[in-house]
Design goal:
- This protein is an alpha+beta fold.
- The chain has 3 domains: 115 residues, Butyryl-Coa Dehydrogenase, subunit A, domain 1, CATH 1.10.540; 104 residues, Butyryl-CoA Dehydrogenase, subunit A, domain 2; 151 residues, Butyryl-CoA Dehydrogenase, subunit A, domain 3.
- It has 10 helices and 10 strands.
- α6 packs antiparallel against α7, α8 packs antiparallel against α9 and α8 runs antiparallel to α10.
- The longest helix has 35 residues.
- The radius of gyration is 23 Å and the shape is globular.
- The protein binds flavin-adenine dinucleotide.
Length: 404
């Protein structure tokens, strides 16, 4: 049996998503500036209402909280369809299919989920996830300096975070802070922080990416009730890292979606554009670029689908998740670069979405863990068995008296 058999139901959902992207999202995007971070509010509301009426909103979230209860594989297949438009890279389907909610909230209590996650799903409001600090993002176990000091039934939060997407427009977010400075990585806890908390500030700043504007966030004596801590004291980092792995497959599928959209457009363009009396499509130099993009796209899809299926079977997918993240973000960069080149000057105009995809794709090799950190995860796994054998050999040699 083909292990990538896609059910008729899933095909139907993908088709519905595709229709909404083509009939509603792409026309709405054409009504705003090519650099606009989001759709016009009335378009967002109208399309997300339609999405909800079709049962397509928040498909990846649990059914009992108003989501669609889709698995990782299903979401990866659907996300490939959701991102095929100008604003596709930052927030699948412009957020009309659901806005991002920090995964750690699902490890919270029922009361936390009802108070924070459920209204965010119902109202489509922004939330944020704050782990990165000015001192570093790749290595949060060492870099987190934000302090959460316990005082009775509250924690007092002091410190700052950087690159926090949506914090200026969110109602709440999940913040990682050091509650026990002596306990290393086991001294970090996760807190739900409301943006109206006195002492909380979020200051947006511009980056190469147009949408999902990042912020510098500061906490000055912010009082957070103990009931807003997610999980146990010191459990924060393990919650954050465990939740991230599965999510990397649909996230990687958003990289794939934009690569697919750019590639399709470029194949068509090569068949229309003539230089020196010949179609670009008839030049071997162009054919090879298109063939390389096709290879990048198909390899990315196989990595994502294989890992996502294993995630649904509860296999250990941490290394496969890193592979999907690295490969999809780097393949996206290569594909978009070729597409821009084949479009010539039109590739860098705001008339086509390529220019925006080209800029936004660059962030994908840094955010959600830089490529080097994911390669480190892959290499560690690859070398672990050999290293353990080497150590065992060294130990047994040390225990055996040397032959003379
Ligand atoms: C637009 C944007 C939005 C973001 N949104 C969020 C958000 O919402 N919430 C959030 O918490 N964070 C967010 N981030 C932060 C992002 O996750 C971090 O930028 C990322 O984790 C890298 O951290 P850093 O920038 O501090 O780089 P550093 O950790 O300082 O690393 C710098 C570079 O060093 C190299 N490097 C690091 N470690 C190794 C290693 N072990 N071996 C070899 N090379 C290495 C890599 O090339 C890396 O790019 C966002 C970032 C951007 C750019």
């Amino acid at each position: 049996m083909n292990s990538f058999m896609i059910s008729d139901e899933l095909k139907m959902v993908v088709e519905q998503v595709r229709r909404i992207i083509e009939d509603d999202v792409i026309p709405a995007e054409s009504r705003v500036d090519p650099d606009a971070p989001e759709l016009a509010e009335e378009d967002y509301q109208r399309i997300s209402k339609k999405v909800r009426s079709l049962g397509l909103y928040a498909l990846e979230l649990p059914r009992k909280y108003g989501g669609g209860g889709m698995g990782t594989f299903e979401m990866s297949v659907i996300a490939e369809a959701m991102g095929q438009h100008r604003m596709g890279l930052y927030n699948i389907g412009c957020g009309v299919f659901g806005r991002h909610i920090p995964e750690s909230i699902w490890s919270g209590t029922e009361e936390q989920i009802q108070q924070y996650a459920v209204p965010a799903i119902q109202q489509g409001t922004h939330t944020f996830f704050a782990i990165t600090e000015p001192g570093g993002g790749s290595d949060p176990a060492n870099a987190i300096q934000t302090r959460a000091e316990r005082k009775g039934d509250r924690y007092i939060l002091n410190g700052s975070k950087i690159f926090i997407s949506h914090a200026h427009e969110a109602e709440w977010g999940v913040v990682y802070a050091r509650s026990n400075p002596e306990a290393g990585r086991k001294g970090i806890s996760a807190f739900i922080v409301e943006t109206k908390t006195p002492g909380f500030t979020a200051k947006p700043f511009k980056v190469i990416r147009t949408a999902a504007i990042p912020n510098v966030v500061t906490f000055e004596d912010c009082e957070i009730p103990v009931k807003n801590r997610i999980g146990e004291d010191g459990q924060g980092l393990s919650l954050a890292l465990n939740m991230l792995s599965r999510k990397r497959f649909p996230y990687s599928a958003t990289n794939l979606s934009v690569a697919v959209a750019a590639h399709k457009r470029t194949v068509e363009y090569a068949n229309q554009r003539k230089t020196f009396g010949e179609y670009l499509a008839d030049r071997q130099a162009i054919q090879w670029m298109l063939a390389d993009s096709e290879l990048d796209i198909r390899t990315t899809r196989l990595l994502i689908w294989d890992g996502a299926m294993r995630a649904d079977r509860d296999e250990d997918i941490r290394v496969l998740a890193s592979m999907a993240k690295v490969y999809s973000s780097e393949a996206l960069g290569r594909v978009i670069d070729r597409c821009v080149q084949i479009h010539g000057g039109y590739g860098v105009t705001k008339e086509f979405p390529l220019e925006r995809w080209y800029r936004e794709a660059r962030v994908r090799r840094i955010g959600e863990g830089p490529s080097e950190v994911h390669r480190m995860v892959i290499a560690r796994d690859l070398l672990r068995a050999g290293r353990d054998q080497r150590k065992a050999r060294e130990r047994s040699q040390a225990a055996t008296p040397a032959a003379r």
